[in-house]
Amino acid sequence: MKGILQDVKAVLFDLDGTLVDSMWMWTDIDIEYLARFGRSFSRELQKTIEGMSFTETAVYFKDHFAIPDSIDQIKADWVSMSIEKYRTQVPLKPHAGEFLKALKRQGIRTGIATSNYREMVDACLGALPVDGLLDVVCTACEVERGKPFPDIYLHVAKKLETPPEKCLVFEDIPAGIRAGKAAGMRVIAVDDDFSKDMEAEKRALSDFFIEDYSVLL
Question: Are residues 67 and 165 in the same domain?
Fold first, then answer.
């Protein structure tokens, strides 16, 4: 498995569920937020919105659940609900920090390609021991289309000045895996409790599947 890094010049990570253990948080937030408006959460919702940018998700919530608030207000509410959790309750995935340090030692560039909102990404990463270990951090709000389209991964690769074929992507959900593959990159699927029921699909779509980052050390 360690040979997977041969000829790789840049490693690109999704954030939630891939680099950090946070997907549980978003289920809690969705349930709490929808309850404010008398709406019910369903497991199907998570599958529908997977890969959408933060803004795309807010638009979907407003339209699908007839939320009376503006898109900006919906996003502001989600930000306020999530930031404290990101700062105090969200850890790196097992051995992810060690893997980032190993990439740094090997001179392999690193980037984040997340569907999340910038303020929350900054709060999350600011609370973790990753200072100096990530070269580029981008969100899907910076590009035209969210995952499963390749836009965010191509955007990060361009910022890293690395051709797609020299990039390796780590993802935890099918939409993200599709985005990486559509960008012309190899993709490793990362195990996550939130997406256990998607494991067969993740294995089928990706080039490799790992339980955690220890197998790459």
Answer: no
Boundary residue ending a domain (53, 88, 123): 88
Confidence of residue 1 (pLDDT cuts 50, 70, 90): low
Is 77 part of the annotated catalytic residue set?
no
Q: Which of 16, 21, 30, 192 is catalytic?
A: 16
**What whole-number distance in Å separates Cα of residue 130 and Cα of residue 148?**
27
Nearest to 46 by CA among 69, 59, 28: 28
Residue 98 is predicted with a pLDDT of 97
Q: Do residues 62 and 97 both lie within one domain?
A: no
Active-site residue 16, yes or no?
yes
pTM equals 0.89
From the candidates 14, 151, 172, 192, give the one annotated as an active-site residue. Answer: 14
Contact call for residues 179 and 147 (beta carbons, < 8 A): yes
